[in-house]
Write a structure and sequence with these properties.
Radius of gyration: 21 Å
CATH topology of the largest domain: D-amino Acid Aminotransferase, Chain A, domain 2
CATH class of the largest domain: Alpha Beta
CATH superfamily of the largest domain: D-amino Acid Aminotransferase, subunit A, domain 2
Number of helices: 9
Strand content: 25-35%
Largest sheet: 9 strands, mixed
CATH architecture of the largest domain: Alpha-Beta Barrel
Shape: globular
Helix content: 25-40%
Structural class: alpha+beta
Bound molecules: pyridoxal-5'-phosphate
Number of domains: 2
Length: about 325
């Protein structure tokens, strides 16, 4: 009831504020908050973005047409979830982002600790209890590939919104997956460990290939035919009660949920292995599942129309899903 009341008040206030253009001016209705080293206007808004030092309603967050990620895909992102006002594995996501920034040589002007605070402040401004954060950092703005000729101040945007990747019934029924014809890019082209915006065009093609034949996900192999990952998730199988996932050296995004799933499997008493898997291993597995920030842990019950194990979510997968749910309360609180 109290939350409903708060949301109503927040909604009315946001509507009034945006109608009167107050979000950008110094409205007495807004309470300024400190975000990183900046003071930003603050209002309770459901879907918001931090951009250029301001928190604004999501639809007002605009980036330049000559942003290098818009022009060339030259940017990085993180998708992060928050549960019960706590941001899950925030520091792992920031570490991965800043490793990508170092690898690509962006001239990042916001230190990691400051961006961490900005993320927490933006979540607080949204006043949502559960949701999805999208953190984007791009190289800068300017036409032409050569970074020497552009304004190399990274564009940084933090979006707080919601996202459900698969409908709830799929967590009960399990996912139907196909093997995609789109292979992983080799590590000496664009290292799949990089969460690079430009790299996702291939994943989107793979996703489309899947849904055109009624599948929920698509499995990507590397050029040696080893299983790597799905379009937005890592993959696992269970063989003889051992929880196995592709080794990072096959070329994949080393997912944060993947690491959590490996740890939780061990805590539940199962042996784990990062190894080399082919579709043979999936066709003959006892169980399979996918992991990802957006997907969380979801059972995978079919590959290329063939049932995996019993063709139903397996017991170990279900135990892990339940254990993962408990784990989600361990995030960084923002309020
Ligand atoms: C290609 C790809 N693989 C795996 C994952 C899972 O990674 P994480 O668990 O860190 O979200 C994602 C999600 O972002 C992804 O996009």
């Amino acid at each position: 009831m109290e939350r409903l009341f708060r949301l109503l008040v927040a909604g009315i206030r946001c509507e009034l504020d945006s109608k009167m253009g107050h979000l950008k001016s110094k409205s007495p209705a807004l309470v300024p908050i400190q975000s990183g080293s900046r003071t930003v206007p603050y209002a309770c808004m459901a879907k918001v973005a931090w951009i250029n030092g301001q928190i604004v309603p999501l639809e007002e967050a605009k980036v330049s047409a000559i942003d290098h990620a818009h022009l060339y895909g030259d940017g990085l992102f993180e998708g992060i979830r928050f549960y019960d006002r706590k941001v899950f594995r925030l520091d792992d996501h920031l570490d991965r982002l800043y490793h990508g920034i170092t690898y690509l040589g962006f001239e990042m002007h916001i230190p990691q600790s400051e961006l961490r605070q900005i993320v927490l402040d933006t979540c607080r401004a949204s006043d949502e209890e559960n949701g999805y954060i999208r953190l984007n950092v791009t190289r800068g703005t300017g036409l032409g590939l050569d970074p020497r000729n552009i304004d190399r101040t990274p564009a940084v945007v933090v979006i707080v919104s919601t996202l459900s990747l698969y409908p709830p019934e799929l967590y009960e029924r399990g996912l139907d997956v196909i093997t995609s014809s789109y292979r992983m890019s080799p590590s000496d082209a664009l290292d799949p460990r990089l969460k690079c915006i430009g790299g996702y065009a291939s994943n989107i093609m793979a996703k489309m290939e899947g849904y055109k034949v009624g599948a929920h996900e698509s499995l990507k192999l590397n050029h040696q035919g080893q299983v790597a990952e799905c379009t937005g998730d890592n993959v696992f199988i269970i063989q003889n009660n051992v929880v196995k996932t592709p080794h990072p050296s096959v070329g994949l995004l080393k997912g944060i949920t993947r690491d959590v799933a490996l740890r939780l499997s061990e805590e539940l008493g199962y042996k784990t292995e990062e190894t080399f898997l082919t579709v043979f291993d999936f066709f003959t597995a006892q169980e399979a599942f996918v992991t990802g920030t957006a997907a969380e842990i979801a059972p995978m019950v079919k590959l290329d129309g063939r049932p995996i194990g019993t063709g139903k979510p397996g017991l170990i997968t279900l135990r892990l899903m339940a254990r993962f749910r408990e784990e989600t309360v361990t995030g960084v609180p923002y309020a």
